[in-house]
Amino acid sequence: MLLKRITIYLTVDEDTIDSYFNMHDPSPLYKRQLDQEFQQYIMSSIVAIKRYSVIRYKLVCKKESDKKYVEPLIHAVRRHFSIQKSIKESQFSKFKKSSYKLLAFSLSMVVICHLILAAFTLTNETMHSIFENAMEVFSWVILWRPINELVFGWNPFLKDISIFDRLINADVITSEMYAVELKKPEQQICIAS
Fold first, then answer.
1. Backbone phi, then psi, for 3, in 5-degree steps?
2. Residue 176: helix, strand or coil by DSSP?
3. For each successive 10 residues of the chain (193 residues), what is the average pLDDT?
4. Where exactly are the structural domains of the chain?
5. Cβ 146 vs Cβ 106: under 8 Å
6. What pTM value is reported for the model?
7. C-alpha 31: how far from chain center
8. Cross-strand bridge partners of residue 176
9. 161, 89 in Cβ contact below 8 A?
10. Residue 107 contacts by C-beta under 8 Å, 6 or more apart in sequence?
11. Largest separation between any pair of C-alpha atoms in the chain
């Protein structure tokens, strides 16, 4: 089932905050690299994402003092996914550039082959039609891959860029677990007479 709204739940407290980051990174909390397992958790949380799904982070603080970790954690997550987005955008621009180069090369090969065929016009009409049909087949074969890449190859890049953008701009909801304290019901003693 594909969801319209995806919520990524995170517990923020002194005990769990270090597990979200690379333990070998000595940087300040907001500049640290995210841990691989934490990245996998976020990516597995959005597996059922649709094109127009809204992503939000729901952070649960156990104590009032844990609220100080919310801003650095969200900053680190957004920083991580903005880096991932810029990497994917550069890969996409390289993909477009190489696809257009391949298309230009293929078109130039087709034009050269047709010019060669036109230059060596054969007097035998049967032989001329055989070479002309062979050139048409060769043209389709040589142009198939660049056209296929340009038409169908964009979507995975655009999908990933869109997902990273939504992870960067996701809303943050903070809830306090400490605010909801359940009282233990008093036991009633029944004396049978």
1. -100, 150
2. strand
3. 79 87 85 90 90 91 87 93 96 94 88 80 72 82 85 91 94 75 47 50
4. 3-176
5. yes
6. 0.76
7. 21
8. 61
9. yes
10. 143
11. 124
